[in-house]
Amino acid sequence: MTLKKVLIVLMMFALTFPLFPADSAASSCYQKTSVKKTYVNVSVATLWKDTSAKRQIDQPILKNPVNMKAWTAKMATVKDRLWLTGKAETQALYGQEVTVLKTSGSWAQVAVKDQSTPKNSKGYPGWLPKSQVTTQPAAYESCEKARVKANTAVLYHDKKTSFMEVSFNTDLPVIKSETNWVQVMTPANGAKWIKKSDVRLGNTASIPKPIGTALLTTGKQFLGLPYLWSGVSAYGYDCSGFTSSIYNYHGIRIPRDASEQAKAGTAISKSALKPGDLLFFAYSNGKGRVHHVAMYAGDGKMIHSPKAGKRVEIISMNTAPYKQEYAGARRYID
């Protein structure tokens, strides 16, 4: 191969897989830094309570890349999904920042920065395979973000060849924006392309303050999605993963778990409920420990991700056992 051909090949590679932004707009947000952070490097990482042996059907999510569709399809029975209760803790999305707390063999215990919990001041803790995170220079912190608004979206190498499917709420730095496409920087795989119609551009500070009906509309796009313990992605939500993810998409951070969500925001009487308010349910006819959360949908109805074997649905608040277990409501927006 001649020198000229070698140079052409190298130029084509650099354009397709840039190690740093090449255009002027991208250069303005790229900042060379010695500061390193750890990011999730799979589409959805499942965090576990410990490193003990997992089931054979969990293998699709214990490597890199993960296959969420294969995993959820393998859990064909309610028993398969109930097994996760108390074993899986939460999930984190591609590109989400985590803090490594400790390691053990091929596993790392991390804390998910954007998921608040009293369990750890650094974020929601849990164990995952080390291969599912990457530590990189935090060089794109000031870039505009592209947040996935579709249930799922595909990242492409070159606008034609798919690289990875990612979930709703995945948030990646933008290095180039075109009419129909956005180029984003991934945690460890260089620049990729995503359809502009699948994302919302901006930063948390620029997200319009939502009204309750906007939260409700976002929640409705997941109607029919099967419940998944620990889930925070469009491949399956648990009850509080559903509500916290919807609020997070609209720029409002609330605690990860229902019991903590019930302590935040402002208490609202049942007679003053508005769409978007969160409803809480507790054992002992509403007097005991909070165990479930739903979102008020108006007209005495609620939308929620109920339990293993069920799907995201809209039902009457008077449906048993929720009518008997109602424990109050909270509002997080003015």
UniProtKB/TrEMBL annotation:
Hydrolase listed as a keyword: yes
For the biological process aspect of GO, one term held by this record is:
proteolysis
Any idea which GO molecular function terms this record carries? cysteine-type peptidase activity
**InterPro entries the record matches:** NLP_P60_dom, Papain-like_cys_pep_sf, Peptidase_C40, SH3_16, SH3_YKFC_2nd
Ranges that cross the membrane? none
* Superkingdom in the source lineage: Bacteria
Q: Which family does it belong to?
A: Belongs to the peptidase C40 family.
Name recorded for this polypeptide: Cell wall-associated hydrolase, NlpC family
Q: Which PROSITE patterns does the annotation name?
A: NLPC_P60 (PS51935)
Signal sequence bounds: 1-21
- Annotated coiled-coil positions are none
Keywords tagged on the record:
Hydrolase, Protease, Signal, Thiol protease
Domain named NlpC/P60 is located at 209-333
Under the heading SUPFAM superfamilies, the entry gives: Cysteine proteinases (SSF54001)
Q: Which organism was this protein described from?
A: Domibacillus enclensis
